[in-house]
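Sample pair:
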Amino acid sequence: MNPKIINCSERKVVGLSSTINRNEPHKIGELWRQFMPEKYKIKNVATNELIAIQLFPNNINNEGVDEYTIWAAVEVHDFENIPNGILSYAIPSGDYAVFTLKGMNIQGLYEKIMTEWLPKSGYTIDDRPHFQIMGEDYKNGSPDSEEDIYIPIKSN
């Protein structure tokens, strides 16, 4: 596991959000199904990438967290002319460990990051959102799919 360590600038995103419980993963798909038709109403999209965001209480990680907020979003140039019903959010700047997920087992990769990579890395989880960027290599449901997982970090 060798992530890229990068400093991300702030990202302005717009989309839909929902609060879910750990035992409600089906709500993630429901949120995306709700967002995708709305996505085409957004005029100032910065990229073709989709962004999934997780906001954990105290933003530490998902260990032992029962309820957290998820987002289905796209990056925009600014928050001007956002369609009704679409929410805005700014992902704060900071350092991130970026892992590439191949396939669809995000939970398995996340567990390895938290239990294997993080304890040996010299970093701790920072108090910022976790997010995924699904670009042109993302193929929902496919073992050939790729997406980048952004874990907020700070030096120990």
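Strands lie at 4-8, 11-21, 50-55, 67-75, 87-91, 94-102, 123-125, 130-134, 146-155.
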